[in-house]
Each structure stands twice: as C-alpha cells, then as structure tokens.
Design goal:
Blueprint lengths: L1 H35 L12 E2 L13 H4 L8 E3 L4 E5 L17 E2 L15 E9 L1 H6 L9 E7 L4 E6 L2 E5 L15 E4 L9 E9 L10 E8 H43 L5 H23 L5 H26 L6 H12 L4
Parallel strand pairs: 1-2
Antiparallel strand pairs: 2-11, 3-4, 3-5, 5-10, 6-9, 6-11, 7-8, 7-10
Length: about 350
C-alpha cells in the first residue's frame, strides 16, 4: 500500500514543478515581448532646449506660404540659474518685493557645496526673477500659451513653489509638519502669472534633520508651455518608475511565485518542514521588495519605510538561518537560538 502512495506523491511534486516552470516561462516571454514592443516603450520627446546666455544662429528664411499654416513652436527654458539661495526659513522670503541681493547666486545643475554653500539640513529658499524679454525671445509669449513649470527635487527633499508670492504647488510631504517622502517631478501651472511683467519664483525647500545636503534640494526647473512641459513630465515619471519601482516589483513577484511553490511542496510533502521556512523566507523578501517600490514612488514616508525595512531585514536573517538548519537536518545549538532571538528583538531596541 505504500508504493502507490509514494508514486502519487512523486507525481504531485513533478506536476507542481512543471506547472511552476511553465508559469515562469510564460511570464518571462511576456516581459521579453513587452521590452521588444516599440509601442510599449515610453515616448522619448526631443525638446528644443534653450538656455539663457546661449546664442543660437538665426534660422534660414522660410517662404510665407510655407509658414502661413505652420503651428506655433515654443521653446522650453532650462532654469539652471542664477538662483539666489539662503539657508533658513521666513515666510516673507516669498514676497516678490523682497530684496534678495545679499543672497549668494548658484547654478542648481551643480552641487551647492562646490559653489561655496555648506552642507545643511532643514529649510532653505531659492529665488529667481524672470524678465518678459527672456520669455519673448524664446517664443513663450507668442499666441499667449498657458505656461507651466516642471520642478524636480533631490531624493526626499520637499518643495513648495511660490509664484509672485502665492503658493502654486507643493510636494506630498511639504505641510505644516513636513515629512520625508521621495519627491518625483511635478508640474506647476502658471495660470495666474502675468508673463508681460517680471515673474518672481520662490521655492521653499526642506530636508529632515537626519539628512545633510551637499547637492541641494532643487535639481531641475524647466519653464514652457503646458503642452511642451507635459511630455517632459511623462518622461520623468517613466524614468522614476524604471529606476525605483520596476525592478523591485519584478523581484517581489518572482519571490512570491517561489513562495507559492513552497506552499505547494509543503502540501505535497508535509513531513518536509524546510518548505515552510523557504516559503516564509520568500514572502519576507517579496514584501520587502514591494515596500521598496512603494517608497520609491513617493507613496510611503521614510519614517515608516525605515521601520519596515528594519523589521523585514532582521526577520529575513532569522528565517534564513532556520531554513538552512532544517534543510541540512542540523540540530540547532543554544547559541543559534539565542542569535535568532536577538535578531528578532533588535528592531524593538
């Protein structure tokens, strides 16, 4: 009576392994096909970027008949500087009439530390004044397009954008009590700004006390028509997804599949307890990778993410050690049990 039962158990295990291999193969083919599909790739716009102080050659004359029905072309202005920057916090610094001539000038495309600004944490302000002549030369006033800013911060730096003294937009964590989130790029419409007069941009920035900033909290600002800024925002979000979420989610999915396989093996061979610990190990890794993706997309505050990562890391170490003991049929020593208990208690300490 034992032989048929053993054959049935082996058949179940083989069927489970083959089914899991088939699922992994189908997922791999789907991901590979998506990466080769040109329609699935994010758009790669090629904007016409013009910087202040850069002289461009005059275009060749075009016949009037060819330009009669041509659409208006607007440039995207890269606002690298000169920005006025000051460390500290004062609501009056958003006032467009505030005299910031004593503030040092910086180029936000370069690290602030290399420009004489010491590392800092807490609040800092950036200010820049845009003249109508700059916008007119770039075609941003032609046909009165709706203007917008594309603002990009540095990592968990929080930003609040003021246009002529009025707050126009802010990141998720910039509130009355700021908190640390990953800050993806965001668009700031300038619907109420009068582009025929000087526009004063003031950006209030904040980083937690545990973070010292050498690079600066503001890394990129672009100005242009909303229709031209929108593709830049889409491209920036795609880049954020690829760098901070895609690989983590793929890793989470793969380890979840292995955890599912561990459950199937445990149900088929209940006396092999190592499958239980393999399942727990893979689940911990899957949950940890998913939290990395959620934090990278700016949906989870760093305070919660740090605690979560600390617990998952220590649980992973303790469960991995238990899996090795079970898999090798090694009798656990008192020292090993004490070490596992210390790993689990360490996050509370």
């Amino acid at each position: 009576m034992k032989i048929p039962g053993r054959a049935l158990s082996q058949f179940d295990v083989r069927w489970i392994l083959r089914s899991f291999a088939l699922v992994c193969a189908l997922v791999t083919l789907a991901l590979h096909g998506q990466s080769r599909d040109p329609q699935s790739a994010p758009p790669q716009p090629q904007p016409d970027v013009t910087q202040p102080g850069v002289t461009t050659p005059a275009p060749a004359p075009v016949p009037a008949a060819a330009t009669a029905n041509a659409p208006a072309i607007h440039a995207v202005l890269q606002l690298d500087g000169p920005w006025r920057v000051n460390i500290g916090d004062d609501p009056g610094w958003a006032d467009p009439d505030f005299n910031d001539s004593s503030w040092p000038q910086v180029d936000i495309s370069q690290p602030l530390f290399d420009q004489g600004i010491e590392t800092f944490s807490g609040f800092a302000w950036y200010r820049i004044r845009l003249q109508p002549q700059q916008l007119a030369q770039l075609g941003l006033l032609k046909d009165n397009p709706l203007l917008a800013l594309l603002v990009t911060g540095n990592s968990v730096g929080q930003l609040a954008v003021y246009v002529d003294g009025m707050e126009a937009a802010h990141t998720r964590g910039m509130s009355d009590h700021p908190s640390e989130y990953q800050s993806p790029a965001f668009m700031v419409p300038l619907a109420g700004a009068d582009a025929t007069k000087p526009i004063v941009l003031s950006i209030r920035a904040w980083a937690g006390t545990g973070i010292s900033t050498r690079r600066g909290l503001l890394t990129n600002v672009e100005l242009g028509a909303q229709s031209d800024i929108a593709p830049h925002l889409t491209m920036s979000r795609s880049q954020t997804w690829n760098e901070k979420a895609a690989s983590a989610l793929v890793l989470s999915f793969l380890y979840f599949c292995v955890a599912f396989l561990g459950v199937a093996l445990l149900l088929a061979q209940r006396h092999h307890r190592e499958y239980l610990w393999m399942t727990l190990l893979c689940l911990v890794v899957s949950i940890g990778a998913a939290s990395d993706a959620v934090f990278g997309l700016g949906l989870l505050p760093m305070s919660v993410y740090r605690v979560f990562a600390l617990f998952t890391g220590r649980i992973f170490m303790a469960v991995t050690l238990e899996f090795v003991l079970r898999f090798s049929a090694t009798r656990p020593h008192r020292f090993i049990r004490s070490f596992q208990g210390w790993l689990l208690l360490l996050p509370f300490v």
